[in-house]
Amino acid sequence: MNLEKHLRARRETGAKLLVPYVTGGLGREWCDVVRAVVDAGADAVEVGIPFSDPIMDGRTIQEASQRALDLGATPVGVMDEIATIEVPAPLVVMTYYNLVARLGHERAAHHLRACGVDGAIVPDLPYDELDGWGDAADAAGVETVLLAAPTTPDDRLHAICERSHGFVYGVSLMGVTGERTELAAHAAEMGRRCKAATDKPVLLGVGISTPDQAAEAAASADGVIVGSALVRRLLDGGGASEAATFVRSLRVALDA
Fold first, then answer.
1. Quick check: pTM over 0.90?
2. What is the C-alpha to C-alpha distance for residues 43 and 254, in angstroms, rounded to an integer?
3. Catalytic residue among 39, 43, 53, 57
4. By C-alpha distance, which of 153, 198, 206 is closest to 176?
5. How many CB atoms lie within 10 A of CB 219?
6. Is 29 a catalytic residue?
7. Over the chain, what is the mean pLDDT?
């Protein structure tokens, strides 16, 4: 499924876009969680490939990654499990460059695509150093989503938006992922800047934790990515049903 085409089509209906994050390999039922959040209204799902040093992520997703690793999760194993998930929404992996480099650009890209992955986010691989991975991903049909930060200057922001495929990931605050009690002050401005720089779908992520925050962030963008607030529920023992309930509450707030 073409990620950008799918998100554009959803946006054209007037919908705000919702992309929840699920840690791959976090328990035996994690694939059921992915299916459940799609049924609850997710427009795409971001699947985190566990890594021992997830530098963009705060305590919650660090803990989830470590727990998945302790349960035996591997990059190829998570990809192979993704291949068993049949949902009417694109699947996007989020991973770190160490894992991509270890597998090799072409092998990683082709295996992702063979397993039904539509896009990839590699947050520690900057725009200027994309060449090897970017070319391999393009050739394999995996859309590489790039991130833009509040400190990104306008000329670089335009370049990032031009090169990003699938959507543009607007980082709503300077810091790591994690739940916040209120939406970051930078979020609205980040959404406006990205929207002014591209007509591609713009999603805001990092620190968006509640239905109200999701609706507030989406007002200046095309939608949101919600990770830690969902993953915390999974770490606390919630399964597919609780994940669906939370995602459905986000969907209701965005639709309102």
1. yes
2. 12
3. 57
4. 206
5. 13
6. no
7. 92
| Residue that has been written with the tokens 């063979």 in this structure | 114
Query: What tokens does 76 get?
Result: 């190829």
Return the SS3 of 72. Answer: coil
* 70 is annotated as an active-site residue: no
CA separation for the pair 103, 98 (Å, rounded): 9
Q: Which residues lie across from 169 on neighbouring strands? A: 147, 203
Which residue in 4, 43, 46, 143 is the catalytic one?
46
Q: How far is CA 71 from CA 25, 35, 78, in A?
A: 8, 21, 12
pLDDT digits (tens, 9 = 90+) for 129-140: 998 999 999 999
Instruction: Please say whether the beta carbons of 146 and 164 come within 8 A.
Output: yes
69-106 CB burial, b ≥16 within 10 A, e <16: eeeebebeebbebbeebebebbbbbbbbeebbeebebe
Closest CA to 59 of 154, 176, 168: 176
Cβ–Cβ contacts within 10 Å for residue 12, how many? 8
Residue among 99, 136, 140 nearest 116 (CA) = 140
